[in-house]
Design goal:
The complex is a heterotrimer. By secondary structure, chain A is mainly α. Chain A has 7 helices and no strands. In chain A, α1 packs antiparallel against α2. The longest helix of chain A has 26 residues. The two termini of chain A are about 35 Å apart. The C terminus of chain A is likely disordered. Chain B is an all-alpha fold. Chain B has one domain. The model of chain B has no long low-confidence stretch (mean pLDDT about 85). Chain C is mostly helical. Chain C has a single domain, classed as Orthogonal Bundle (Helix Hairpins), CATH 1.10.287.3510. Chain C contains 4 helices and 2 strands. A two-stranded antiparallel sheet of chain C has the order 1-2. The model of chain C has no long low-confidence stretch (mean pLDDT about 85). Chains B and C meet through α5 and α6 of B and α1, α2 and α4 of C.
Chain lengths: ~160, ~500, ~120
C-alpha cells in the first residue's frame, strides 16, 4: 500500500490525534462510563489502522515498529498480572481491590474512585491496542512477501483471549 | 498444604506473556524459564493432592464472583497435565531447535497449559468456556506451527470444527443461564435438582454433549483428530493426545453430566454407546495406518472410548440404582485409564518424535531395524506399547481389568467381550509398530541414524519410569485412597458434590 | 419468538460452516454462529422499557451509598452483557487466527476451495 491522495493524508493526520485522544479518554474513564480497557484499546489501534490506510504500511512501520508493539503487548499483559498479584500481596486474595478497600477509597463518580480497576483498564488498553495493531499489521504483510518465518502469525492467538477481564 | 489455586493459571500465563519479549540471543534462558515453570506446576500439583479447596477470586463470595474449586477429580487431572507438560516441555527443549520462532512456541505452550489448568479448576461454567477457548486457540496455533501444507490444512480443519464446538458450548452456557439464572456450578446443580429438567436444559445438555464430544474426538465427531494430532510438533502431539482432549472434553463432560445435570439411564446408555463406537472404530482404523503418528492418533480415539465407556457404565449403574460399588468400580476403571492414557500416549508420541527427528520420516514402511540404533527410544516405546495393549504387569492391564470386572459384575458380558477384543486389536497395532520401526532390516538410506541426545532422552526416560510405576496408583491402597478414590467419589456423589459449595 | 429467530440464525451459520466449499465462507459461517449466540445472550437480559445498567448520579443515594430501588427494577441484567463482551474478545482472537491461516493457505495453494486442498486423507 503506497497511501492515498493528499486530501486523505491531510485529513487523517488531523483526525488521528482526535481518535487517539478519544481512545485514551475511553480507557481512563472506563470505570465511570461505558467502555473501558478493551474498547479503548480497539480505538487506539484503529487510529493506527487509519494511518496505515492513508499513508501506507512503511510509514506506520517507521512510527511504531512491530518489535516495539510486541514489547508493549507483553508489557500490558505483565502489568495486568501485576495488578492481580499486588492484590494477593496487599489484600491476601488474587485480584482483590486493595486500593479501594484500604488506601484510596475515593468518592463515587470521581475519576479517582475505583481502586485498582483503572489500573487494570490501563493495562488492558495497552495490551489490546498493541496486539490488535500487531494482528492487523501482520495481516497486511501477507500481500507483499510470502516468505515469513514460521510462527509469526501466531501472535494474534497469543494475546487476545486472555485480555478479557 | 494450602495453595492459592489461581497460581496454577497465573504462573504459566505470566510466563507466557513475558517469554515472547525474549529475543533470539536469550533463547536458552527462555527455554530454562519455561521448563522451570512446568516443573513448578508439577510440584504444586503434587503438593495439592488430598487438600480440597475453594478460592474466591477478588474476595467476592461464591454466587457473585469467580471461584476456583479443587476437588479429587480436578486434582487427578492437574497431576496428569503437569506430568505430561513437564515431560513435553523438557522434550521440546532440544526437539524444537529445528523451528525458528522458539520463544513463541514456548509462550503458546504455556498458554495452553494455563488454559487446561483453568478448565479443571474453574467453578463456574462460563469461566470453563473461557479457559477452554484459551487452551483451544493456543492449540490451533500450535498445530499449524510449522506452516507447511499439511499443517495449515490440518490446523484449519481442527480450527473450524473446534470453533463450531465452542459455539455449541457457549450456546449451552447461555441456555443454562436462561433456565437456572446462575452460572455457578453449585447453584446450577441446585436449581436443576429443584425444578427438574425442561426443554431448554435438555437442549443445553445435548449441545454440551455435541460440543465437548467434538473436543474429546468421540467417534461421530472424530474427523479432525487424525489430521490435527500428527501435524503438530511431537511434544505438542503428546500434549494434545495426552491431556488436551481429556481436560477439555472428557473432564468437562463428566463434570457437567455427573455433577450438574445428574445421571439418567438414557445418558448412561448414550455415553456407553459413544464409548463403544469410539473404541471399536478407532481401533479398527488404527490398524490400517502406515504413518506412525497417525496410527497413534487413531489409537487415541480408541483409548478415549475406554474412558467414556467406564464413565458411562458408572452413570448407567448409578441411574439404575444398582450396587454403588459396581458403579464406583466402573468409574475407577475409566479414570485410571484416563491417567494411564495421558502418560503412555504422550510417551508414545515423544518416541515417534524422536524417531522422526532421527530418520526424517513418519512412514513406517521406510523404517526398520532402528532398535539397535536407538535403544532408549525402543525401550520407551516397548514399555508404553505394552502398557497401552494391556500386557499384565503394566498399568494399562489393570485399568482394562477393572473395566472388565465392572462390566461382568453388572451383567454386561458383551461389553466385557468388546473391551477384550479392542485390547487384542490394540496389541496387534503396536506389534505392527515394533515390527516395522524397530525390528527387521535397516534400510540403506538410514544407515547413519543415531540416537538423539540430551533432554529428549531425559524426557522419555522420565515418562517411562512414571509409566512403569503407574500401576502402583491402584495397587497400593494408600496411594489409591489419596489420588484415585477422591476423584471417583466426586463423580459417584453426583450432584451432591457440587451443591455443598453453596453459601448458606 | 425472538429466541427462535436466534436459533434460526445459529442454524444458518452452522449450515454455512458445514456445507460451503470456500474457506472464507466457512469462517463467515462460524462468525454468524457466534453472533447468534451473542444476540441470544443479550436478549436474555433484555426486557421491555429496560434502561442500560449504568448508574447515574441521580440514581445514587449518597447518604446510604446504595443505588435506588427504582433503578434496580428498571435496569436490564448486566451479566449477559459482560459475557458477550468476553465472548466477542475470544471470537476476535479466533477470527484473527482463522483468517491468517486462510491467507497462508491461499499463498500455498492459490485457491480458497477446500475441495482442491486435499493433501490429507480422511
Amino acid at each position: 500500500m503506497k497511501g492515498m491522495t493528499v486530501i486523505v493524508k491531510t485529513v487523517s493526520s488531523w483526525v488521528k490525534v482526535l481518535i487517539f485522544l478519544f481512545g485514551i479518554y475511553i480507557i481512563l474513564f472506563g470505570h465511570l462510563t461505558p467502555g473501558g480497557g478493551f474498547a479503548g484499546g480497539v480505538i487506539l489501534a484503529s487510529s493506527y489502522v487509519l494511518l496505515m490506510l492513508a499513508f501506507g504500511r512503511r510509514f506506520v512501520e517507521e512510527n511504531l515498529p512491530s518489535s516495539v508493539a510486541s514489547k508493549l503487548d507483553c508489557l500490558g499483559a505483565f502489568l495486568f498480572a501485576m495488578v492481580a498479584i499486588l492484590g494477593l500481596v496487599f489484600g491476601g486474595t488474587l485480584f482483590v481491590n486493595f486500593l479501594y478497600q484500604e488506601y484510596l477509597p475515593g468518592t463515587p463518580f470521581e475519576l479517582v474512585s475505583a481502586g485498582t480497576i483503572p489500573l487494570s483498564n490501563l493495562a488492558i488498553g495497552l495490551k489490546v491496542g498493541a496486539s490488535l495493531f500487531l494482528v492487523i499489521f501482520a495481516l497486511t504483510v501477507f500481500r507483499y512477501d510470502g516468505s515469513r518465518k514460521p510462527g509469526d502469525s501466531d501472535e494474534s492467538a497469543g494475546g487476545t483471549p486472555a485480555t478479557r477481564e | 498444604m494450602n495453595i492459592p489455586l489461581p497460581m496454577f493459571v497465573v504462573v504459566p500465563l505470566v510466563a507466557a506473556f513475558v517469554l515472547p519479549a525474549f529475543g533470539r540471543r536469550l533463547k536458552p534462558l527462555a527455554t530454562l524459564i519455561a521448563n522451570l515453570v512446568t516443573l513448578f506446576l508439577l510440584v504444586l500439583a503434587v503438593a495439592s493432592v488430598g487438600t480440597p479447596a475453594v478460592y474466591e477470586v477478588g474476595g467476592w463470595s461464591i454466587p457473585l464472583g469467580i471461584n476456583m474449586v479443587l476437588d479429587g477429580l480436578s486434582s487427578l487431572l492437574l497431576l496428569a497435565i503437569s506430568v505430561v507438560s513437564a515431560a513435553a516441555m523438557l522434550f521440546s527443549a532440544r526437539y524444537m531447535e529445528q523451528y525458528t520462532a522458539k520463544p513463541k512456541y514456548l509462550s503458546l505452550f504455556l498458554l495452553m497449559v494455563a488454559g487446561m489448568n483453568g478448565v479443571v479448576l474453574s467453578g463456574d461454567i462460563f469461566n470453563l468456556y473461557v479457559f477452554l477457548e484459551i487452551a483451544s486457540i493456543a492449540s490451533y496455533a500450535l498445530v499449524g506451527f510449522g506452516c507447511e501444507h499439511e499443517e495449515l490444512e490440518a490446523s484449519f480443519k481442527y480450527m473450524v470444527l473446534g470453533s463450531i464446538a465452542s459455539a455449541f458450548i457457549l450456546f449451552g452456557v447461555a441456555l443454562v443461564y436462561a433456565n437456572t439464572g446462575s452460572l455457578n456450578m453449585a447453584y446450577i446443580a441446585d436449581a436443576i435438582g429443584r425444578m427438574g429438567t425442561n426443554v431448554g436444559l435438555t437442549l443445553a445438555l445435548s449441545l454440551f454433549i455435541a460440543g465437548f464430544g467434538l473436543k474429546a474426538a468421540l467417534v461421530p465427531f472424530h474427523a479432525w483428530l487424525p489430521d490435527a494430532h500428527p501435524s503438530a510438533p511431537a511434544p505438542i502431539s503428546a500434549m494434545l493426545s495426552g491431556v488436551l482432549i481429556k481436560a477439555l472434553g472428557v473432564y468437562a463432560l463428566a463434570r457437567l453430566i455427573f455433577n450438574l445435570f445428574g445421571v439418567s439411564v438414557a445418558l448412561g446408555w448414550l455415553l456407553v454407546g459413544l464409548g463403544l463406537a469410539s473404541m471399536i472404530a478407532g481401533g479398527l482404523l488404527a490398524i490400517g495406518q502406515w504413518d506412525f503418528k497417525r496410527l497413534l492418533a487413531y489409537s487415541s480415539i480408541s483409548q478415549i472410548g475406554y474412558v467414556i465407556l467406564g464413565l458411562g457404565l458408572g452413570a448407567l449403574l448409578m441411574a439404575q440404582n444398582a450396587n454403588p460399588a459396581w458403579a464406583a468400580l466402573a468409574i475407577l476403571g475409566g479414570l485410571f485409564h484416563l491417567a494411564n492414557h495421558a502418560v503412555y500416549k504422550s510417551l508414545l508420541f515423544l518416541t515417534s518424535g524422536s524417531v522422526e527427528l532421527a530418520t526424517g520420516t513418519r512412514e513406517m514402511r521406510k523404517m526398520g531395524g532402528l532398535g539397535d540404533r536407538m535403544p532408549v527410544t525402543r525401550a520407551a516405546c516397548a514399555v508404553a506399547s505394552a502398557s497401552i495393549a494391556g500386557v499384565p504387569p503394566f498399568p494399562g492391564f489393570w485399568s482394562k481389568l477393572i473395566l472388565v470386572i465392572a462390566a461382568v459384575q453388572a451383567g454386561f458380558y458383551w461389553i466385557a467381550v468388546a473391551i477384550v477384543a479392542v485390547a487384542v486389536c490394540t496389541l496387534i497395532m503396536y506389534l505392527k509398530v515394533h515390527r516395522y520401526v524397530f525390528l527387521g532390516e535397516l534400510p540403506p538410506d538410514l544407515q547413519t541414524v543415531r540416537e538423539n541426545k540430551g533432554s529428549i532422552l531425559f524426557a522419555m526416560a522420565g515418562l517411562t519410569c512414571v509409566c512403569a510405576l503407574m500401576g502402583l496408583l491402584v495397587l497400593v491402597p494408600s496411594l489409591r485412597s489419596s489420588v484415585l478414590d477422591p476423584a471417583v467419589s466426586v463423580l459417584t456423589d453426583g450432584v451432591q458434590s457440587s451443591t455443598h459449595l453453596m453459601s448458606p | 419468538m425472538a429466541y427462535t429467530l436466534c436459533f434460526l440464525l445459529f442454524m444458518i451459520g452452522l449450515y454455512c460452516a458445514v456445507v460451503k466449499k470456500n474457506m472464507v465462507k466457512i469462517v463467515l459461517g462460524i462468525m454468524i454462529m457466534e453472533y447468534a449466540v451473542n444476540l441470544f445472550l443479550i436478549m436474555l437480559g433484555y426486557f421491555h422499557d429496560g434502561v442500560a445498567p449504568i448508574i447515574d448520579r441521580s440514581e445514587f443515594d449518597a447518604q446510604t451509598q446504595t443505588v435506588t430501588a427504582q433503578f434496580l427494577n428498571s435496569s436490564v441484567d448486566p451479566l449477559p452483557q459482560a459475557l458477550v463482551l468476553t465472548s466477542i474478545v475470544i471470537s476476535l482472537g479466533s477470527l484473527a487466527l482463522l483468517i491468517s491461516i486462510c491467507i497462508r493457505t491461499y499463498e500455498k495453494y492459490g485457491t480458497f476451495d477446500i475441495t482442491e486442498i486435499r493433501r490429507l486423507r480422511g
